[in-house]
Amino acid sequence: MVFLTLSCWIRSRGPDRYWKVQEVLKHARHFRGRKNRCYSLAVRAVRRAFVYATKARKLKKRNMRTLWISRIAAATREHGMKYPALMHNLTKTSVQLNRRVICDLAVTEPRSFLSLAKLARARQQEGFRAALGDGKEPAGVFSRVVLLQ
Amino acid sequence: MSSFSRSAQQWATFARSWFLIDAKMQPPGKIATMCSVRLQGKHKPIYHALSDCGDHVVVINTKHIAFSGNKWEQKVYSSHTGYPGGFKQVTAAQLHLKDPKHLTIVKLAVYGMLPKNLHRRTMMQRLHIFPDDELPDDIRANLTEELPQPREIPRKLSEYTQEEIDAFPRLWTPPEDYKMK
């Protein structure tokens, strides 16, 4: 016998089991059913939740972009234009605002958004005049693109 | 407007408005797209699917709806009762005539154009369809805006004055022995 006294028979197996379990359960506290209390069920649910969270980081970017686009489309239709016309004409006038910024302007700064819509409409009219006209008319004010080198 | 308190501004932004659409001599599909856009709230820059930002839409004169082409005879509305041999097919004309309130065609069109989720039923509850010009007083009191009609109604020949008919340019002269109907 190796352990000759009673006190030597007492083992300390993993003194921090409570905290290891809490580390997992704290991520499961808002779940439904026994998954929020029982460790074996919670471990599986928490692993699934983390996998979904990882996959959703890419989806969030896509969803946010579609939301911005639908909001910008709604705002442009209020001003009598359509979203593709607005974006195309803004890129042609080298306005490099992304959809996130234009959406925020549409929501919080309506007059700035109106000025962007008017700019896009002016550029659109210049494009129509250039396409339908003879080519002898000079290019409009907004059609001149400045190339910075 | 920026002098109002934040809560008042929020109340004004998210308030639900009531739109009026006159469906006289209009194609029900075009009416339905306008309705579905406003029921979802997609006409607002503050749109979000979860924020319940849809508005109320009132459609009047649905008795005088006008399908283009031969759709009154060719468009078929199918349903199945669930029992064997219960497959029913009705043409649009039959459905419209059988309907005492003349709301099925517009209702089905809008129902099909809304997103297929649990919000659809609440959005349909916010759609109000009336076959005639008569509206209940409480709905009439709520209306805020009338939307322009999607289709320009062409004038009938009887609505043109004789001077306009005479002033119209002659497109071709018929030969001597041509028999007009």
TrEMBL record, chain A:
<protein>
    <submittedName>
        <fullName>Uncharacterized protein</fullName>
    </submittedName>
</protein>
TrEMBL record, chain B:
<dbReference type="InterPro" id="IPR005823">
    <property type="entry name" value="Ribosomal_uL13_bac-type"/>
</dbReference>
<dbReference type="InterPro" id="IPR036899">
    <property type="entry name" value="Ribosomal_uL13_sf"/>
</dbReference>
<dbReference type="GO" id="GO:0003735">
    <property type="term" value="F:structural constituent of ribosome"/>
</dbReference>
<dbReference type="GO" id="GO:0017148">
    <property type="term" value="P:negative regulation of translation"/>
</dbReference>
<dbReference type="GO" id="GO:0005762">
    <property type="term" value="C:mitochondrial large ribosomal subunit"/>
</dbReference>
<comment type="similarity">
    <text>Belongs to the universal ribosomal protein uL13 family.</text>
</comment>
<keyword id="KW-0496">Mitochondrion</keyword>
<dbReference type="InterPro" id="IPR005822">
    <property type="entry name" value="Ribosomal_uL13"/>
</dbReference>
<protein>
    <recommendedName>
        <fullName>Large ribosomal subunit protein uL13m</fullName>
    </recommendedName>
</protein>
<keyword id="KW-0689">Ribosomal protein</keyword>
<keyword id="KW-0687">Ribonucleoprotein</keyword>
<dbReference type="GO" id="GO:0003729">
    <property type="term" value="F:mRNA binding"/>
</dbReference>
<dbReference type="GO" id="GO:0006412">
    <property type="term" value="P:translation"/>
</dbReference>
<dbReference type="InterPro" id="IPR023563">
    <property type="entry name" value="Ribosomal_uL13_CS"/>
</dbReference>
<dbReference type="Pfam" id="PF00572">
    <property type="entry name" value="Ribosomal_L13"/>
</dbReference>
